């Protein structure tokens, strides 16, 4: 009799879980998002072209650097989670309060230039995808601008985040290309243990991949996002998981692009240089067909470009308005108090779109932005480490070996960033 009663209790507990269990089970859905969207934005048009170029020039030997970047990327972004949630302040605001207005303006100014340059890359990517299907950039770029501005005016950070993640997930379409290509597993394994470190061109591409994966605006965005989402300290473990999953997704996409182009164009004699969306699709056409190449490259680049444009513009706007001490929340509809925030966000997109449509010398602009990102990395990562040590209570800081590992890896990334400046401007 008692066993039947016990069985009945267990069964009813399974069928009718308590409200608390339901809340705990689905709580992560309300917390996750900032890590996913910022990581999907990380694999933007420029990053994917860099990954494709890496696979084309150095084949599977570029797989190991992408794997090694996983812990570095996670560790840097995880610091922004703790800083944002514990202090409830954005990155620019913390710099202003702890290091003064001058340093805050330096970080905000360089971030603004970097954000505009990144937006140029994204709109060039949007235009390139349209041209694959015979659509003029005079149609695709204004449409993308209207869409991106409209998303931010929805009056809800959660809504913006969900739309951004949905757009970014289109990048996963490229998995189909790798399945169609069927790369050689033995060659991949050989590439993982081959490091041609004596070749300067290989080291430069590794540095370019470091710069392509760890972007200064990512730090401003994720810290601002967890603040706007009003996450409590209890959410830190879940937000870490959100960031970790996002890290594996973004690096997985980079690995897929390296593998696809290493297995195809990289195995041909005298592989072509890949600098545009059309170059990527054209290079894969002999291997998977023109229609498949256009659709899969188009979906991946468009998804990455749109989510990156959204994130980059918000990162730049958050950073500058934090320094100016203006209202800067997506959770409030447009009003006189926050009009500066929305105007700055809109202006960033409009400037990027106009520069692309006006056919400015985008090559030189792109080079200048690459140098700016390289110089900005030491500044941003340096402030990130300093803020983590200065403003967080002891229980939320890094400790022991983990602290020294993170510091060393950040210094390594800074060194790669500075190294990129020389070859880019022709100093060495």
Write a structural description.
By secondary structure, this protein is mainly α. The protein is built from 19 helices and no strands. It is globular and about 55 Å long.
Topology record:
Blueprint: H1 2-15, H2 19-31, H3 34-42, H4 45-58, H5 63-87, H6 91-99, H7 101-132, H8 137-152, H9 157-168, H10 175-181, H11 185-192, H12 200-213, H13 216-228, H14 236-263, H15 277-288, H16 290-324, H17 339-357, H18 362-390, H19 400-425
Helix pairs in contact: 3-9, 3-13, 3-14, 3-16, 4-12, 4-14, 5-12, 5-13, 5-14, 5-18, 6-7, 6-16, 7-8, 7-16, 7-17, 7-18, 8-17, 9-16, 10-14, 12-19, 13-16, 15-16, 16-17, 18-19
> How many E strands?
0
The secondary-structure element order is HHHHHHHHHHHHHHHHHHH
Radius of gyration: 22 Å
| C-alpha end-to-end distance | 85 Å
Low-pLDDT residue intervals, each spanning 5 or more residues: 5-13
What would you call the shape?
globular
- The number of helical runs is 19
Q: How large a portion of the residues is in β-strands, by DSSP E?
A: under 5%
Mean residue pLDDT: 84
Assembly state (oligomeric)? single chain
SS content category: mainly alpha
State the helicity in percent bands.
over 70%
Largest sheet report = none
